[in-house]
Amino acid sequence: DIQMTQSPSSVSASVGARVTISCQASQDVRSWLAWYQQKPGKAPKLLIYAASNLQSGVPLRFSGSGSGTNFTLTISSLRPEDFAIYYCQQGNLFPITFGQGTRLEIK
Amino acid sequence: EEQLVQSGGGLVQPGGSLRLSCTASGFSVTSTYMIWVRQAPGRGLDWVSVVYSGGAKFYADSVKGRFSISTDSSKNTMYLQMSGLRGEDTAMYYCTKTQGSGWYFDTWGQGALVTVSS
User: Fold this and answer.
1) Which sign does the torsion angle of CA A40, A71, A99, B57 carry?
2) Which end of chain B, N or C, is more open, meaning fewer C-beta atoms within 10 Å of its C-beta?
3) Nearest alpha carbon to residue B35 among B9, B62, B11, B53
């Protein structure tokens, strides 16, 4: 199975700050990479697909980049509603696998 | 608007059985890939099972032989029949569907909590 490793595991930041979360795959997943946001008690929400494509309705402050084994999710200017857990997920090879999550907390 | 509404879940004893349901609106469950994902308390997301639009079914090794995925087009509903339940199956179970262009999950159910305990 492809292992997805996110860093950091948690990060504290202030409203208005720029934040970057990294995701590394144990083998090449090309651009088959998605990012999700999950808030407490809620289902995950698709933010980015195919590494850099913004899902419909997702604010432009979210962006994704990378290919192969290294990917990043960037939030350009944090808003209060962005504090949540973020997961990456590879869709290149079965079984589908997720990263362990990055908790984004308010500083 | 595409939507998934889940039902089922609850407390079950080890070795017991339970069925989860996931009813779709705004699309047909047989027109896309339908997936079950679970999340143990305080943990990350794990893929459980998938049923392809053509009917093929696949399972994670951890549930193979114990869980069964199916769809009913007349009810536009997907099911997960779980048997031989173990403590490690305790989790929130989500149903979801693939976005048209790949293995990305664009619509999710609200989740159903399964607790396996005596």
Assistant:
1) positive
2) N
3) B53
Q: Diameter of chain B by CA atoms?
A: 43
Going by C-beta distance under 8 Å and a sequence separation of 6 or more, which residues neighbour residue A46?
A34, A35, A36, A55, A58, B99, B104, B105, B106
**Which among B50, B71, B49 is positioned nearest to B62, based on CA atoms?**
B49
The structure tokens 């490690």 sit at B88
B46 touches chain A (CB under 8 A): yes
pLDDT in tens, A60-94: 999 999 999 999 999 999 999 999 999 999 999 98
Contact A33, A47 (CB under 8 A): no
CA–CA dist B83, B67 (Å, integer): 6
pLDDT tens, residue by residue, B39-83: 999 999 999 999 999 889 999 999 999 999 999 999 999 999 999
Which residues are registered as beta bridge partners of A67?
A70
The rounded distance, in Å, linking the Cα atoms of B53 and B24 is: 14
* Number of residues written out for chain A: 107
Q: Is A44 on the interface with B (CB under 8 A)?
A: yes
Cβ of B105 and A97 within 8 Å? no
Do the Cβ atoms of B108 and A89 come within 8 Å?
no
